[in-house]
Amino acid sequence: MISTRLQWFADARFGMFIHWGLYSVTGRGEWIFNRERWEMQDYTMLAEQFTAEDYDPKTWAKIARDAGMRYAVLTTKHHEGFCLWDSKTCAFNAVNSAAKRDLVGEYVTAFREAGLKVGFYYSLGDWYNEDWARGFNGDEAAYHRFMQYTRDLLTELMTQHGQIDILWYDLPQCYTALQWQAVDLNHHIRNLQPDILINNRAYTSEDFSTPEQHITAAPSGRLWESCMTLNNHWGYCPHDDNYKTASQVVLNLAQVASGGGNLLLNVGPTPQGKIPQPAIDILKQTGNWLRQNGKSIYEASDRHGLSFNLWGPVTSSCNDMYLHLKNYWGNEIIIGGLNPNVKQAFLLSTKQPLKVARRKHQTILSGLPTQSPDELITVIHLELDGKPEQDISRVIGKADIFPILTD
Ligand code: GLC
After folding, report:
1. Residue 205 CA, ligand 1 centroid: distance in Å
2. pLDDT, average across residues 171-177
3. 153 and 10, same structural domain?
4. Which of 244, 268, 298 is where one domain is finished?
5. CA quadruple 264, 3, 216, 338: dihedral positive or negative?
6. CB of residue 43 inside a 6 A radius of ligand 1
7. Which residues are CB-neighbours of 112 under 8 A, at least 6 positions away?
8. CA 344 to ligand 1 center in whole angstroms
9. Which CATH number fits the domain that encloses residue 327?
10. Residues 74 and 120: beta-carbon distance below 8 Å
11. Among 157, 246, 290, 323, which residue's beta carbon has the most beta carbons within 10 A?
């Protein structure tokens, strides 16, 4: 049994990651300070162009909600060190930029009002902070100063905006949990926000794992969330048109659901504060699909190994099984080695019933429309007389079993 504190996350399935900061001004991603070897005094000038003039977090929240997302995680401070909130600890913040606003406070209010859970991404590493930037090199005083700085910023974040649902750490690589004083720090966080979920990126395991740009289920009983870009960048990049299609997003959702996980899908708003139109369009299509087929994602999170097929990801819940047809072949689908019998089979979106027959180790579904009835991914819903299990050893000799590559 999962605790009530964690239950919403276990059920959420889909969230919005938002990478927004001064790097958005250049449109070349959030690592530019480091990779282009900027001087901080030049980099801070970008704040003059970070206007946020079109920032309307209510619109962001509506986009997320309409996409079927149930929570969001905003970069309150990325590695660059720029704080999107009204910080008293760090002057390099949004109120002192062209934006002149507490962008985090407005985000929290808007997303909460829209019924979404609210998360804060926080980069532990900080290129703006001189102690961090110089490297401590045995300088105890510098190290302690930086730890206090980290604690002060996090305390602000945990006390200025009411309830916060997720703390999403990043950039621990160069440091261990011990050096981050992560146990003590998280104890402090949980005192301020008793119901918060914390990720594993300060090197303590905490509440959930964070596979990045791939979908790999954590061991049973452990919460997890795959974070992914929608194109190839986290931060705003107008030149990157390599967007995932809505069908790919749906297939990713089916894959996370089959392992009981979540998908945290990223958008990178412009420095003016607009989510790019291609992202809006993809999220809208995904939301439309979820409104018709969401049962196969939100209500099906039994972990299983039902991947022996050529059509696409399978999700399940008790005796219900959902086939997501990445490959649509018209009239007929054959399931190899399905143990239980099918009591009823139909298309999830139209409820059209399908014919079911059994031939030795094959379950044959027929009567599907010639053309895929769903614009994105058609789902077949099977009601079985037992839990879905596939016995593929009966179909081919054990020695012949090899993994099917799905991509
Ligand atoms: C990668 C990127 C970082 C980004 C993070 C999100 O680690 O380097 O910039 O914020 O992914 O998970």
Report:
1. 18
2. 80
3. yes
4. 298
5. negative
6. no
7. 118, 162
8. 45
9. 2.60.40.1180
10. yes
11. 323
pLDDT at 404: 46
As to burial, measured by CB atoms within 10 angstroms (0-12 exposed, 13-18 middle, 19+ buried), residue 372 is middle
Which whole number is the average pLDDT over 376-393? 95
User: Which residue's CA lies nearest to atom 11 of ligand 1?
Assistant: 212
In the chain, the number of structural domains is: 2
> Can you give the pLDDT at residue 396?
55
Domain end point (choices 273, 298, 323): 298
Q: Do 232 and 338 fall into the same domain?
A: no
Distance 247 CA to ligand 1 centre (A): 24
Which residue from 16, 173, 212 has its CB within 8 A of the most atoms of ligand 1, so it is best to mutate?
212
Asked whether residue 60 is assigned to any structural domain, the reply reads yes
pLDDT (0 to 100) of residue 174? 77
Q: Cα of 228 to ligand 1 centre, how many Å? A: 9
Does residue 305 sit within a domain? Answer: no
Q: How many A from CA of 55 to the centre of ligand 1?
A: 23
Tokens of 43: 């980099």
pLDDT of residue 2: 85
Number of helices (H) and strands (E), helices first, in the chain? 13, 15
Look at ligand 1, atom 1, and give the residue with the nearest C-alpha: 212
CATH (domain of 78): 3.20.20.80
In a shared domain, residues 294 and 322: no
Question: 225: Cβ below 6 Å to ligand 1?
Answer: no
**Cα 311 to ligand 1 centre (Å):** 32
Whether residue 211 has its Cβ less than 6 Å from ligand 1:
no
Please report, rounded to a whole number, the percentage of residues in the chain having pLDDT higher than 70.
Answer: 96
In Å, how far are 365, 383, 393 from 353, measured between CA atoms?
A: 10, 11, 30
Per-residue pLDDT of 61-96, as tens digits, reads 999 999 999 999 999 999 999 999 999 999 999 999
Find how far residue 186's CA is from the centre of its chain.
22
Q: Please tell me the distance between residue 386's alpha carbon and the centre of ligand 1 in angstroms.
A: 42
pTM of the predicted model as reported, rounded to 2 decimal places: 0.95
Q: Please say whether the beta carbons of 119 and 69 come within 8 A.
A: no
Q: Is 171 in the pocket of ligand 1 (CB under 6 A)?
A: no
Does 217 share its domain with 333? no
Residue 216 counted as domain residue: yes
Q: Tell me the percentage of the chain whose pLDDT exceeds 90.
A: 90
Let me know whether 293 and 365 are in one domain: no
